[in-house]
Specification:
The chain is of the alpha/beta class. It has a single domain, classed as Response regulator (Rossmann fold, 3-Layer(aba) Sandwich), CATH 3.40.50.2300. It has six helices and four strands. The protein has a four-stranded parallel beta sheet with strand order 2-1-3-4. Helix 1 packs across helix 6. The longest helix is centred in the last third of the chain and has 20 residues. The structure holds 4-nitrophenyl phosphate. 4-nitrophenyl phosphate binds next to loops.
Length: 150
């Protein structure tokens, strides 16, 4: 499986999702390729937000070496699934898909936990307290992703 995690800045939510899923794949000896990207371009080349690094580290996961990039058109061919963190990411990703096959790869990540509810992972950028909550949501979602696709 090749899975791309996508949020707005690629510094808070999607690097955490990437780190968590990669960590679980290593534990389960799953040879998956996991990456993350942002729909926006403000933080290209930047390390994850300190608060994401911190919450990941608290759970034994090191995401400090990740660097932000934006979504590329080639991602739709390369990846099997492209997970959007929120509705706005989903809308952007769907608008850039070139055909039905590419559209079908785009999914809301929390639908893995709450099917068809289209819940969003809240953007924690302006909320210091939001990171632990985001971590827990993504941790649950990544368990479901492995359950479903491994
Ligand atoms: P992310 O959070 O999409 O989870 O990486 C954000 C990071 C930066 C900004 C917004 C959201 N920003 O506006 O710069």
């Amino acid at each position: 499986m090749k899975i791309l995690m996508v949020c707005l800045g690629n510094i808070c939510r999607s690097p955490l999702a990437e780190g968590i899923l990669r960590h679980k794949c290593a534990q389960k000896k799953l040879d998956w390729y996991i990456d993350s990207a942002g729909t926006g371009k403000w933080h290209l080349g930047a390390a994850p937000d300190k608060r994401s690094i911190q919450v990941a580290s608290k759970h034994g996961i090191d995401i400090s070496g990740l660097r932000a990039r934006s979504v590329h058109s080639s991602d739709y061919e390369e990846f099997d699934i492209i997970f959007a963190m929120d509705k706005s990411n989903y809308k952007d990703l769907m608008s850039w898909a070139l055909d039905k096959e590419e559209e079908n790869k785009v999914k809301m990540i929390l639908n893995e936990v709450y099917p068809n509810e289209d819940k969003s992972v809240p953007d924690p950028y302006f909320n210091d307290d939001g990171f632990q909550n985001v971590y827990e949501m993504l941790d649950k979602a990544c368990d479901k992703i492995i359950e479903k696709y491994a």
